[in-house]
Amino acid sequence: MEERPMAGKMDPKFGAKFLKSVENFNEYGIHFLFNDWWESAPADAIEKYVALIENDPVQGPLAAERYYAPPLSLAALEVHAPGTLGAHYLAFVRDHNLMESLAVGYRDLHEQFEATGVLKNLPDVLKHKVLRGYQTHDLHHVITGYPPTPLGELAVQAFQLAQTQFPYASMWIAVVTAHMTFIDPHLTVPAMNAITHGWSHGRAAKSLQFVKFEEQLDEPLELVRRRFDIRAATAADFVTPERHTPDLLVASTPPGDMSERD
């Protein structure tokens, strides 16, 4: 019979992978760590994560639809008028040279993990959460105003965690706070500024989770923000400090990079 960790226990093998991510989360990213966890994840922790989504009066019904949007084509977005969510999203991806098919790339990675059997304990609702989350990830950046920088990414994850207690976002916070504590104290202030900004704004806003923003691309961005009580951040809120610059912010991998693991 396969052994699973007891309640309140972490599997030592996964613990070693967690520390690897703590040491350098640009080289061993959360998109790997998240998938590594399920093989040894405590059953009671999984049940709690499932219940937190399914029992939420707003998110539960949306999650139950298991909706996936067709991939967004940047060329198709050119029809949206200036000022709309679609136009802002198009500019966001092009201006920052981001992946047009981030969600497709992550689904490919997910299927690679799935084929090995390590995701057999991943419930369908949580599988949907992470795959759908990659579809809306950059849309959430646009709506919240958080830039596609390491600190902006951290703020987005804190925002998400404030709205949905989900292990992907939790792992971001756990890894970064462990790194600033045990490896680079210079990361403490900028990281905590990003985390607290994202957390407080996420708690104050209406839930963005599982929302079909692909159906709102022709609406003015400011209207969408008002609908969800979003007070948009600015890039100036997340400037990498020039003095005592954290080591991992000097030259970091773009968020969502799908590079190979060691």
Explain what this protein looks like in three dimensions:
The chain has 262 residues and is an all-alpha fold. Helices cover 56% and strands 0% of the residues. Helix 2 (30-37) packs across helix 10 (167-182) and helix 10 (167-182) packs antiparallel against helix 11. The longest helix has 21 residues, at 124-144. The radius of gyration is 18 Å and the shape is globular. It starts with 11 loop residues before the first helix and ends in a 12-residue tail after the last helix.
Descriptive terms for the model:
mainly alpha; 262 residues
The helix fraction, in percent, is 55-70%
> Approximately how much beta-strand content do the residues carry?
under 5%
| Integer-rounded radius of gyration | 18 Å
Our count of domains comes out at 1
Helix/strand order: HHHHHHHHHHHHH
Shape: globular
- N-to-C CA distance: 30 Å
Tell me the major beta sheet.
Answer: none
Regions with pLDDT < 50 over 5+ consecutive residues? 253-262
Please give the count of helices: 13
Average pLDDT score? 91
Number of strands: 0
- How does the helix and strand content classify structurally? mainly alpha
Provide a compact summary of the structure.
The protein has 13 helices and no strands.
Q: How is the secondary structure organized here?
A:
Layout: H1 12-23, H2 30-37, H3 43-54, H4 59-64, H5 74-77, H6 85-95, H7 102-116, H8 124-144, H9 150-163, H10 167-182, H11 188-204, H12 221-227, H13 247-250
